[in-house]
Design brief:
The chain contains seven helices and eight strands; from the N terminus they run E-H-E-E-E-H-E-E-H-H-H-H-H-E-E. With 286 residues, it is an alpha+beta fold. The protein folds into two domains: 147 residues, Chloramphenicol acetyltransferase-like domain (Chloramphenicol Acetyltransferase); 99 residues, Nonribosomal peptide synthetase, condensation domain (Chloramphenicol Acetyltransferase, 2-Layer Sandwich). The strands form three sheets. Strands 1-6-5-4 form a four-stranded mixed sheet, covered by helices on one side. It starts with 8 loop residues before the first strand and ends with a strand.
Length: 286
């Protein structure tokens, strides 16, 4: 927990056009930290394993880099350097606030706003919550209005305690038995042909491939899914499974997919790590 790794950093960057009041930004983020206890929670080794400690106060400071005096090329270099430093600096889970932010000012009314949260206190849904609350609070504070956000009904620690109580020894054994049976015969790795030999040690050098479907194709897929009583996800997952089966010459296809895991309304406005990866096993021979 002391040394940490940047592997679990969740960075985001936003171009800013227009005057940005940095004192208001700092006040907004301080409010968000005070509002979401998970952002001011630290983790320590206890007698029974890792323990969380929710601090009463956690002071936040916005880092600011002013590069207005540089030309365009130098500004891009400064932005790239600042982003690398911000996004690759590990969090110390025993002492740090679980969110960092910085502003790179490139002109009087332009700049880049950087956010970085640790995955132990955040997920993709949480980033949306952060941005939504940031906008609402900034609009209010910049007009000298009060905090417009409704109080949170629960905190992440309440969810963690509920989950711990729910997963008693008996329930945990039942859940483990179920998944062990479901995944008993799945292959340990896929058998797709690779361009290079698989390394002995797991690497983190994968790429992200994106594509956009045309409006006509998207509408066609939606209509097909509806006609077959499927969701669009189910249809596309089935198609991907068949594709992987064809190219790997295998019938058992295993695909992991993230799920938000926020099935209670009280969890929707929370920042925290709720996401889970669901293993979907498809037998394409059926």
């Amino acid at each position: 927990m002391h040394k940490g790794s940047a592997q679990y950093n969740m960075p985001a960057a936003f171009d800013v056009s227009g005057t940005l009041d940095l004192q208001v930004v700092e006040a907004v983020l301080q409010t968000i930290i005070d509002r979401h206890e998970v952002l001011k929670t630290v983790y320590r080794d206890g007698e029974q394993g890792a323990e969380q400690l929710i601090r009463q106060q956690a002071h936040f400071t916005l880092s600011v880099d002013d590069v207005r005096m540089h030309d365009a090329a130098q500004q891009q270099q400064a932005i790239a350097l600042a982003m690398t430093e911000q996004f690759t600096q590990p969090f110390d889970l025993t002492r740090d606030v679980m969110i960092r932010a910085g502003y790179i000012q490139t002109a009087d009314d332009e700049g880049v706003l950087l956010f970085n949260m640790h995955h132990i206190a955040s997920d993709g849904w949480s980033m949306q919550v952060l941005v939504k609350e940031f906008v609402q609070l900034y609009q209010a504070y910049s007009q000298e209005q009060r905090n417009p956000l409704a109080p949170l009904a629960i905190q992440y620690a309440d969810y963690a305690q509920w989950q711990r109580d729910y997963l008693s020894d008996t329930m945990l054994e039942q859940q483990l038995d179920y998944w062990q049976q479901q995944l008993a015969d799945v292959p340990p790795v896929h058998s797709l042909p690779l361009d290079y030999p698989r390394p002995d040690i797991k690497q983190h050098q994968g790429a992200c491939v994106k594509s956009t479907l045309s409006k006509d194709v998207a509408q066609g897929l939606t209509a097909l899914a509806k006609a077959q009583g499927l969701t669009p996800f189910m249809l596309l997952h089935g198609a991907l499974s068949l594709l992987l089966s064809r190219h790997s010459n295998a019938q058992e296809i295993v695909i992991g997919t993230p799920v938000a895991n926020r099935m209670q309304a009280e969890l929707e406005p929370l920042i925290g790590f709720f996401v889970n990866t669901l293993v979907l096993n498809v037998n394409t021979a059926q």
